[in-house]
């Protein structure tokens, strides 16, 4: 079994889901009392959030590279960044270490294509919805047509993530707001919707959408187990 290196704490709420899923999935496959062999570096998210909103991406790149180096030195065989937004720095992280990085967008896109979908709605932080590092990868590497919410809906989705979900707060009115955003994406032609922030799965479930939802947290964590159990 390979050792998974998890870069987490962004937020710890979703990182806890990663830890749960990789261990449950490993046990499901191997039986007995097997669990995942993994290391986690967990950030204090307050500092990460501040740097994100201040646009200090160079500083964020340095702390992310340091985390990756620590995990590699600790014995990780590959890396998993437990957040969609911080994949903006995936190339910087990869360049700092000699072990591979499992990019969250790739197993998500493969699962979508395997299901026969081409037009996808994307929910996430404003950074993920508006910048090219994520939707550009989906479009250019995987040939998907990505639809993002309009400006007002993007603001609602972003604020609920940072003001509620990263704190573990799940509110009925916020679920209704997300349902409305999803319905508008569907009306614009989305055949499915990517939950492109690892906290959204805490709020939105399959029954909240008329089209399939692709939960990046679960997809990414299961892909990590695939890699950990893959024979060298």
From TrEMBL:
Coiled coil: none annotated. It comes from the Bacteria. The keyword Manganese does not apply. The keyword Isomerase applies. Transmembrane segments: none annotated. InterPro entries: Asp/Glu/hydantoin_racemase, Asp/Glu_race, Asp_race. Keywords: Isomerase. It holds the Pfam family Asp_Glu_race. PANTHER family: ASPARTATE-GLUTAMATE RACEMASE FAMILY, GLUTAMATE RACEMASE. Belongs to the aspartate/glutamate racemases family. This is Aspartate/glutamate racemase family protein. It comes from Microvirga arabica.
């Amino acid at each position: 079994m390979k050792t998974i290196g998890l870069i987490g704490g962004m937020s710890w709420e979703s990182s806890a889901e990663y830890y749960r899923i990789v261990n449950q999935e490993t046990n499901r496959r191997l039986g007995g009392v097997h669990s995942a062999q993994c290391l986690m570096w967990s950030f204090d998210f307050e500092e990460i959030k501040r740097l994100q909103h201040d646009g200090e991406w160079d500083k964020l790149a340095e702390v992310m590279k340091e985390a990756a180096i620590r995990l590699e030195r600790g014995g990780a065989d590959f890396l998993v960044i437990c957040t969609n937004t911080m994949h903006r720095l995936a190339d910087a992280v990869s360049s700092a270490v000699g072990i591979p990085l499992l990019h969250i967008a790739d197993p998500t896109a493969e699962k979508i294509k395997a299901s026969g979908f081409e037009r996808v709605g994307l929910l996430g932080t404003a950074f993920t919805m508006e910048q090219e590092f994520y939707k550009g990868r989906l479009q250019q590497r995987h040939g998907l047509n990505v639809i993002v919410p309009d400006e007002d809906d993007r603001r609602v989705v972003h604020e609920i993530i940072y003001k509620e979900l990263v704190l573990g707060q799940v509110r009925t009115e916020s679920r209704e707001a997300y349902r409305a955003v999803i319905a508008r994406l569907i009306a614009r032609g989305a055949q499915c919707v990517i939950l492109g922030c690892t906290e959204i799965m805490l709020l939105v479930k399959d029954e909240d959408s008329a089209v399939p939802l692709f939960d990046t947290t679960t997809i990414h964590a299961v892909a990590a187990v695939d890699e950990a159990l893959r024979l060298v």
